[in-house]
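Lab manual, section 2.4: Encoding a predicted structure.

Procedure: take the sequence of the chain (192 residues), apply the prediction step described in section 2.3, and record the output as structure tokens. A sample record is shown.
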Amino acid sequence: MSYLFLSYWTVLVAELIGDRSIYTVASLAMRFQPRWVFCGIAAAFCGKMLVAVWCGRLLSELSPLWTGAISAVTFLASAACIWWHRETPDAGVPGKPPARPPSTNAVWVAFFSVFFAEWADLGQISAAALVMRFHAPGPVWLGGSLALCTKGGLAIVLGLSLRERFPRRLVRIVSASSCLLLALVSLYSLGQ
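Recorded output:
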């Protein structure tokens, strides 16, 4: 149990300090139904943490060129999905939910936006180091996954608070622009 708490705290702190996916999740929450966004990001976070636990040593050796390129493409695709997502007729009213149930496409957009971006980040490297040190992959995976989901939940709350204060059109522009900006940051990091 102590490994679970240790990995939860370590990954949460690493993710809150040095991670950009929190902005992606907030942008997605501004645009889509939060429950679908959470389903997508939870699956992505659990998958990324599983890879970190199983392949930790390989992750730490990934070329920054590859991780930056994959992140840039993922953020660009996310910006496109956010921009071209169809609105329901009364979804333009801030704080008012759409009239019909949302499409589960939001789950896939959220999953791919998080799963394919920012590999070998501080959270994954921390989890890999904990597994190598303590040889407890199960508790480290669970603690790390819970930490990532906590971070995602905080980002969703941020996105929802912004969504309630601004018109949908502005939210769509800001969300897509945020993902586009993250793509540019990823591309810039390729040259470094």
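Check your result against the sample. The mean pLDDT is 80.
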